[in-house]
Amino acid sequence: MSYKKGEAYTLTILGAGTIGQALLSAYLASEKAEAAPSKIIACVRSEESAKKLETQYSSASSIQFETSFGEESNNKAVEEAAVVVIGTKPYITEAALSPVKDKLQGKLLISMVAGWTIEQFQTYSSKISRVMTNTPAKYQYGTAVIANSSDITEDERQLILELVSPIGKVVELPEKNMDAATALVGSGPAFVLSMLEGLVESGISLGIPFKESLECSIKVMEGTAKMVELSGTHPGELKHKVCTPGGTTIAGLVEMESQGVKSGIIKGVQAAAHRASELGKK
Ligand SMILES: NC(=O)c1ccc[n+]([C@@H]2O[C@H](COP(=O)([O-])OP(=O)(O)OC[C@H]3O[C@@H](n4cnc5c(N)ncnc54)[C@H](OP(=O)(O)O)[C@@H]3O)[C@@H](O)[C@H]2O)c1
């Protein structure tokens, strides 16, 4: 079956690992939306992972929830679904999709996989939505960048937005930006955690205990990001506002510039985007 607005449908997550569960957690934690599935089936490879999913999510929502593992059972889950989310690692994606190829035709296929293009997925279905998100999605503080194939209808586009929005912030971009989004959004938390670690350790090196240094560092990051968002002011302008001539902040910034902190961040994200562009290639 394929998705028809207003009709009950099953959503199958083929590969409900870290990122598949981030989507699942955010969705189940949100208020039941208009286009919510009547049933969600979370598919994994092993029985052990299926059992963990069962324990964690089976009573989390009024939406009927099932788990599945193994090729035969996963094939049935895809057959039953009108919408399929693929959340496997890039190098496993072909092996996960090949056995269900016939059952995917005409269905809406939402990909969370890094590197795989819309064109590559169109071997399986013409209706493809590429979604790049990140692990904070689990706590509804995620970011998701979406690029849809051209034959996604407006109803399907609305459905995708409704399914993905509980993640946090959703941004629609052309597919040509997906490798950059994979680096900035998908890998972004690791980069920010590295910066956070740097702040925490700076506090410790200057005599602040770990717990307090962590608390301060988290709030500095969160508060600064919120200030940029709420003020609508350019980050550079806000930065210069806190630089007293000859003061402490400018002394710190000059040292960071000489250490190449900003260019290091830019080059790191560019390297991740380059790697993302290689992932879907054989
Ligand atoms: N993790 C991130 O921060 C992040 C961010 C953005 C995008 N992504 C993208 O998300 C995708 C998944 O990454 P991940 O970190 O979530 O990986 P993961 O935690 O390893 O999850 C992959 C899941 O796929 C299941 N699986 C493997 N083979 C399968 C098959 N043939 N049929 C059905 N399920 C199968 C695994 O089951 P078992 O548990 O039984 O092995 C596992 O639950 C990747 O393409 C990655 O690029 C990840």
Automatic annotation (TrEMBL):
Catalytic reaction(s) noted: L-proline + NADP(+) = (S)-1-pyrroline-5-carboxylate + NADPH + 2 H(+)
UniProt GO BP: L-proline biosynthetic process
Domain Pyrroline-5-carboxylate reductase catalytic N-terminal, chain residue ranges per copy: 11-115
UniProt pathway annotation: Amino-acid biosynthesis; L-proline biosynthesis; L-proline from L-glutamate 5-semialdehyde: step 1/1
A GO cellular component annotation in the UniProt record: cytosol
Top-level taxon in the UniProt lineage: Eukaryota
PROSITE patterns (UniProt xref): P5CR (PS00521)
Residues of the Pyrroline-5-carboxylate reductase dimerisation domain: 175-279
Pfam families, per the entry: F420_oxidored, P5CR_dimer
Ligand binding (NADPH): 74
A molecular function GO annotation: identical protein binding
Gene3D superfamilies attached to this UniProt entry: NAD(P)-binding Rossmann-like Domain (3.40.50.720), ProC C-terminal domain-like (1.10.3730.10)
Keyword tags: Amino-acid biosynthesis, NADP, Oxidoreductase, Proline biosynthesis
NCBIfam families reported in the protein's UniProt record: proC
Family, similarity comment: Belongs to the pyrroline-5-carboxylate reductase family.
Name recorded for this polypeptide: Pyrroline-5-carboxylate reductase
Protein source organism: Wickerhamomyces anomalus (strain ATCC 58044 / CBS 1984 / NCYC 433 / NRRL Y-366-8) (Yeast)
